[in-house]
């Protein structure tokens, strides 16, 4: 972590302004992207396949040429200061790409050397231990499981001690245990001052790890917000009432409310917007009492991030 990374006036870890990218085929991959990622945060870029997630991070990491716009990493332009910006970044791509016949230790050490850094066996050992790879350090990569190979990809990305780590669909196709291990590693790295940017279409991954979430669809950044603020702003709550006696139909005065009666008549479901000052729950319960409709139990359900995400993408089509 650099000395100025905690200062209020320090530049953003990543700053993207008016970024556009159209491929030779005519495909518009990105359109008018403006984004700032703060130092030391975990930022999740959430979107379906083909939304533009990989194109965006590939441009920031210097793997794909931008069309129009400007991208800065810790205040450095990715074109004018390519070597500097690339040295600040670690990237774990979606695809596994390693030298199958090399050992784990050697391939991670070699990755460090690619950035012109001196050999540091202590750092490499720590990275391998953090990723549960130390016991496999002398194994050829071709002999590892798919999950272990993905750990090696992360180790390679961390070999040169980057300040910013990009994880492109980091847990696609891995088992639950490895996913949890990787989540724990990400939190440890953030604790060391590393900025983490991950792309994912796993809602639980963003919900578990991110401080802020950006939603991207069809090459456009739909929304960026704090995770909790996003859920509070866009989430709906559901009140489910289990009735003492079944109803065949709702009383006329309740027809105008956002109420659903289950097919068997034993449950009432009331939807309300958390953004409104008055939810209407108290009024509903009072009205039910006036009609002599008693309930034996009730519980509430808040919209998940997945439900919010689906509604956002659908609204922008």
Short characterization:
This protein is an alpha/beta fold. It has helices at residues 53-60, 82-88, 104-113, 121-130, 146-158, 176-191, 203-209, 227-234, 281-290, 305-315; strands at 14-22, 28-37, 42-46, 68-73, 76-77, 89-92, 164-168, 195-200, 212-217, 220-226, 236-243, 259-261, 267-273, 295-302.
Describe the 3D structure:
The structure is a single chain. This protein is α/β, with parallel strands linked by helices and 317 residues long. The chain folds into two domains: 229 residues, 3-Layer(aba) Sandwich (Rossmann fold), CATH 3.40.50.300; 67 residues, 2-Layer Sandwich (Alpha-Beta Plaits), CATH 3.30.70. 32% of the residues lie in helices and 27% in strands. The chain has a six-stranded mixed β-sheet, sandwiched between helices. Strands 2-1-4-5 form a four-stranded antiparallel β-sheet, with helices on one face. A hairpin with a 2-residue loop joins β9 and β10. α3 runs parallel beside α5. The chain is elongated. 31% of the residues are buried. The N terminus is likely disordered.
Average pLDDT level: 85
Q: What about the largest sheet?
A: 6 strands, mixed
Strand content: 25-35%
Instruction: Give the class from helix and strand content and strand pairing.
Output: alpha/beta
Q: What number of domains?
A: 2
What is the string of SSEs from the N terminus onward? Answer: EEEHEEHEHHHEHEHEEHEEEHEH
Oligomerization category of the chains in this entry: single chain
Strand adjacency order, main sheet = 6-7-8-3-9-10
- CATH class group of the largest domain: Alpha Beta
Q: Whole-Å distance between the termini?
A: 41 Å
Low-confidence stretches: 1-6
Number of strands: 14
What is the CATH architecture assignment of the largest domain? 3-Layer(aba) Sandwich
Keywords: ATP-binding, Nucleotide-binding, Transport
Organism: Natronospira bacteriovora
GO molecular function: ATP binding
Protein name: ABC transporter ATP-binding protein
């Amino acid at each position: 972590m650099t000395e100025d990374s905690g200062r209020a006036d320090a530049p953003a870890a990543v700053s993207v302004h008016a970024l556009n990218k159209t491929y030779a085929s005519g495909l518009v991959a990105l359109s008018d992207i403006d984004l700032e990622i703060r130092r030391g945060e975990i930022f999740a870029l959430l979107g379906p396949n083909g939304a533009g997630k990989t194109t965006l991070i590939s441009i920031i990491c210097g793997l794909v040429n931008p069309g129009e716009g400007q991208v800065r990493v810790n205040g450095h332009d990715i074109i004018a200061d390519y070597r500097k910006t690339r040295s600040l970044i670690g990237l774990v791509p979606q695809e596994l790409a390693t030298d199958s016949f090399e050992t784990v230790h050697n391939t991670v050490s070699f990755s460090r050397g690619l950035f012109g850094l001196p050999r540091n066996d202590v750092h490499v050992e720590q990275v391998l231990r953090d990723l549960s790879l130390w016991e496999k350090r002398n194994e050829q990569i071709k002999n590892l499981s798919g999950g272990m190979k993905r750990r090696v990809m992360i180790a390679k990305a961390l070999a040169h001690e980057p300040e910013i780590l990009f994880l492109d669909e980091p847990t696609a196709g891995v088992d639950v245990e490895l996913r949890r291990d990787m989540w724990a590693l990400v939190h440890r790295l953030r604790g060391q001052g590393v900025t983490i940017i991950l792309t994912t279409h796993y809602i639980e991954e963003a919900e578990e790890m991110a401080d802020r979430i950006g939603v991207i669809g069809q090459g456009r950044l739909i929304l960026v917000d704090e995770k909790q603020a996003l859920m509070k702003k866009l989430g709906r709550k559901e009140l489910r009432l289990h009735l003492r006696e079944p109803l065949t139909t709702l009383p006329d005065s309740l027809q105008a409310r956002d109420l659903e009666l289950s097919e068997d008549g034993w449950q009432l479901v009331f939807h309300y917007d958390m953004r409104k000052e008055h939810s209407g729950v108290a009024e509903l319960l009072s009205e039910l009492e006036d009609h002599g409709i008693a309930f034996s139990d009730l519980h509430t359900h808040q919209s998940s991030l997945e439900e919010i995400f689906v509604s956002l993408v659908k609204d922008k089509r």
